[in-house]
Please model this.
Amino acid sequence: MDLYHLKTFFTLAKAESFTKAAELLFVTQSAVSHAIKKLEASLDTALFLRRGKTLILSEAGQALFRSCEKIFNELEKADQELALYRKKAKFHVTIGSPVEFGTTILINHIKDFLETNPDIHLDFLFSHHLLKPLIQDAVDMAIDCHDLSKPGFETIPLFREQYVTIASPDFISENKIRHIDDLNRVNILSNDKHLAWWNNFIIAIPEEKRSCLKNIVRINHVRGIINGAIAGLGIGFVPKYTVMKELKGKVLIDPFPQIKPAADHFKIFIKKEKLDLKKNKKLVDYLTRIKPSEFGAR
Model:
């Protein structure tokens, strides 16, 4: 089997698209198609099946894909070992995380890692949909509070994410917000209309009080909720790490400090074979040593 054909097959299997695979390999779609046909001819079996517009692996393709994962992981480890003999070797790692966490926390805490590991180049993918990039190796690892675990993945606990209700001091004063029941008179700023966003708050209050969250204003971004609360549009509910500066400066305050919302758990998700690579081990070790207090966690 030709290594180039295997690389093309492996890339196509992860991309699930001839167009995307061609972009990743910097070749034409016809070149990808030709390589796959040559590989299938050499193996005398179909590696892909079409289900409408969807491209899926055949049983033979699945078996070959598992072998390719091992082959290309070993090649990457060999490249890492041989890099010790090259001058100015650079190891590339791509890390994924949710948008707000990545832009407000990860970016602000990664400088020390890069300064102590000048041989590692980091790229970032900030998205609320990280499972597919993780499966397709578009990222080497992902940090998320949602469960991304799959067979063959390692899950590494990081910290608990604390949430907080937020409102401007003027809004609280003008609307005389004192008790939970007062929420039925004001706008509730939420990422969704069904209050799934507020679930960690809702389960922390008495059941008979939960119906007071009525007037829902949907704002589908954390920063929008924060700015909406600052502007006096209503009361928001966000991860505490996103408003540490605003809370410290009294631009926003927690109208219900006596309520302790449930916490989510941030974790690192990474394929087991990728955790064997030194570059990834270094980054995982660094991330697990960051103090939880820096994230506004309990």
Summary: The chain has three domains: 3-82, 90-160+264-295, 163-248.
